[in-house]
Structures are given as C-alpha cells and as structure tokens.
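Each record in this resource describes a single protein on a pair of labelled lines. With that in mind, the following record should read easily:

===
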Amino acid sequence: MFVRENRVAITIYVYYYRFITTEEIFLKMELSDFDLISNRADAYLDGINSHVQNFKEEFSKPDFHMRYSKKTVESFPYLSRNAVEKAMVQMEEDGYQFTRKANGNLDSFSLQDVIAIYEQRKVPKYREKHSKGFVAYFNNLKGGAGKTSACVNTIHAIRTEPTLIHHDIRGLVIDLDPQASATMFLKSRLAVGGQPFTAAKAMFNKNLTREELLRDYVFETDVPGVYIVPAAIDDAFLTTSWLDECEHRLDGQEPHSLLQQNIIEKLQGDFDLITVDSGPHMDYFLLNGIVAADALVIPLPPSPVDFHSSLKYLSQIKILMRYLTEQDINVSGKEMIGFMNKFSPHILQHQESLSGATICLGEKMLDAHIPELSGFQRCGVTLDTVISVDPSMYDGGRGALKSAQDAIYAFSRSFFARTQLIRSRQS
C-alpha cells in the first residue's frame, strides 16, 4: 500500500543518494568543503535574520502597530457611540487604562482595547459557542502554490478584521514544513539554526502535557493573540524513520495520528482556529495533517502548469482517504475548501482556471480569492504578513499595502464564514 511503497521509495532514494555521494561527489569534494559551505550558509542565514530583526527593533513600534480610532470602533458590530462611551467609563472606573494624549484626550484604541470593550459589553466570544478550535490544513503537493503565505496572512487577518474582532479568535499555526517557511513569517528568529521545540518533535513526545506545550512549544507572533509552533530543518530526517520512531519511542502509537493526539487534542481548547502548514511532499506530515483536519484548505494557483499540478493532487486525495480508511482511521465528515491564489481576474487564463476549479470543486470553492498583489511579495522581504508589517517599514507604496490588506480581509471574511458553515453541519 501507500506507506509500504513510500518506505521502499525512500529506502531506494536514500541508498542511491548515499551511493552517488560516496562514489562520485566525495571524489571531487573534500568533506571539509561541505563543512565550509554549510557554515557559510548558516552564517549567511543568521546575517539575514539578524539584519531583519535589528531593523525591526530600531524602527518598529514596540507594540502591534494597528490602532483604531474611536469613531471607527463605534461602527463595529454590536457597538455604537453610546455603547463605547459607557464601556470606557465603566472600564476606567474599574482601573482599566486607555492610552491618552498629554491633554487627556483619547489617543486611539489598540486591538486589546477593542477586545476589552467587547468583553465589558458582554458580547459572546467564539469560544463560548465552540469549546474546541477549528483545524484547517493548508495543503497542496504543488510547490509554490502559496500555501504558507495564504496560511499566515489569513490567520493574522481573521484575528484583526474589524467585523470579526468581537469573536476574539485565538489563532495557532502549526508548522510541519522542515523548510520552516511559516516560522520565518511569524517568528523568524526561531527559523535559523537548531530549534529543540518544534511541532515535529512534539508529535514524537506523547508525554508532553498541555502546560508543557504552551510553555515550551507555543510562541506568540507579532499580532497579539496569534501563536506558532515552529519547524526546523532537522525535522525532515523524521520522515525516513517514522515507523521505527513510532515503534520504539511511542510504543507503537498510530503513526498517522501523532499530530492530532499529541498536539491538537491537548491545545484545541486554548485556540479557536488552528491552521497547519506542511511542505509539498507525500509523506507522514501530509497524512497527519489530513487526519487532524476539520477541513483541507487547498490553494489553487491559476497559471497553467501550477493549476495542472494542483488538479493532479485533487485527483489523488481519494486515494489518500481510502488508504487512511484501510488503517481504521475515521475520515468521514472532513470537508474541503478550495480557493484561487495568486489570482488576477483580468488575465484570461486565470479566469479559465477559475472556471475549471469551480467545475471540479463545486460548492467547495470559496467565493473569494487571494489576488496576486505586490503587497504580499514585498512583505516577504521583511518576513512579515500584510497585517503584521509596520507601515513605516513597508518598502512600497501605502496604497499597494492597503490593497493587499483589503484583499486578505475580504478573503478572511469568506474563509471564516465557510468554517462556520462547516461547523454547523458537523454539530
């Protein structure tokens, strides 16, 4: 079956790689050359990371940059001018401190201020309706489909989108990609060098308690209320010995359910939306993501080659589901959410891809897309999302950044509404 064939393929690949390395490459390159190149790469990565961090520390604000004017907050759902003023009076009487100017006038509201106002008004939070977080697995075997960018931008947007703030959605990203791309976006200092507390390592430690996971493995991102469990490059070696690790370290624990049992079930009460990001590989990370997910979220890039490869993945999902069923894993009730990513509505080929995706996925397609905008690309330079980036540090026009923010907010509203529909069906 799938895993048996995969193990054979991996064994052949590892053997072939070792053979080629030993017999050919080592004849041309001394081992010391490998050490030198590796050390240079480590130093260069560390230099990039240090430059970005130093730049942020020197020029960015110590707190999350996004602020909301009083007039803006008064227009938010379930609020009004009188409601906000009454809440502020009662909160300050109870000792809450808003940021005010020297003359005593209100400066503006932080994200935490707005959430506190909703709390004072006793507007129900997401967690009061759902005791467990929704698990969305962003996946596609086509490299470059934009899984990571969509994942990290979406979860930051859902946390801060004005019509969703009252939900006080606590977000968690679980990075299963050894390339650590999501980690670079959300907590870049953790993505360089060895990292002892990664999602993959937590998956192979069934004795970790909820408290230990929250203390050692969960890190807050630049947007308050959104966290990440990081990844590291050495996690990739686990894929070559997965079954042996399960047998010897986990007493034969079911190998496809490590993510669900050892991480998500322990943290599902602490977070309202849990997103999982993995690399474009047919491996145990992929299978664990599928098992743990309430919904498989599949970005579909519209360019012909990328879209064709994405359709190949869609055609193989049924095989993965059958395989998991044969392993006595219940995959019934899992949903799928498809959307166009890097989409330009004015390009005919993109429109044709959208039509094809809608034919294939039907009602599983979102009615919103993530467009191909410079704002998303430029924010990657400073290892930010379009939400977390401080506008004073954005290397581009403010209009372009605003366009990207508006686009991801529109997408996040559609995405969140779809998760709510799915939850209503599952209850």
The first strand starts at residue 67 and ends at 68.
